[in-house]
Write a structure and sequence with these properties.
The protein is an alpha+beta fold. It contains five helices and seven strands; from the N terminus they run αβααβββαβαββ. The protein has one domain (about 1-160): Aminopeptidase (3-Layer(aba) Sandwich), CATH 3.40.630. A seven-stranded mixed beta sheet has the order 1-2-3-4-5-7-6, sandwiched between helices. The two termini are about 25 Å apart.
């Protein structure tokens, strides 16, 4: 427990930059069956509604990216697109830190509601989102490919968190 706490204290969340893309893509490819391409991440870096952050930890080779989050803030709502953590660092609280940062930024911008889609089979992600007050409000049939799966639509009122 103490080692885990020390690891979390060493985590720094910063805005994603071009220099981060290769490490982010590595985590993306290891995390999702249909990963985003580099060109999609580039578009996200240029988008005025997109917020992209990385979680970094100091390692033997300098700062290493151990997770990231991508979200849009538009029309008074936040939509969480991706949150992923390096496989060796999962279940350490990094995803929670990233979602907490999303909530902080959203509140700063006066956003009251957050939404996301998640695979019903992704039980660990669902538990993470429920921890932050997200509840299932609907289903998007056949939303995911590779493998084909519906999406649960989850919403949370950020004022209640």
């Amino acid at each position: 427990m103490i080692a885990k706490q020390r690891q979390l204290e060493a985590i720094e969340i910063t805005n994603m930059t071009w220099e981060d893309l290769e490490e982010v893509l590595s985590i993306e490819r290891a995390s999702f069956p249909a990963p985003w391409s580099k060109s999609i991440f580039v578009q996200e870096l240029y988008s005025p509604v997109s917020h992209n952050m990385v979680a970094k930890i100091r390692g033997a080779r300098g700062k290493e990216i151990v997770g990231y989050i991508n979200l849009w803030i538009a029309a008074g709502e936040v939509h969480l697109h991706n949150v992923a953590v390096k496989e060796t660092m999962r279940r350490t609280g990094i995803a929670s830190m990233l979602v907490t940062e999303m909530i902080r930024i959203s509140r700063e911008e006066g956003v009251a509601w957050a939404s996301l889609e998640v695979r019903p089979s992704n039980e660990s992600a669902i538990k993470l989102y429920e921890k932050f007050g997200f509840t299932v409000k609907g289903i998007r049939p056949f939303y995911y490919t590779d493998p084909k799966e519906d999406a649960l639509i989850m919403w949370a009122c950020l004022r209640d968190i």
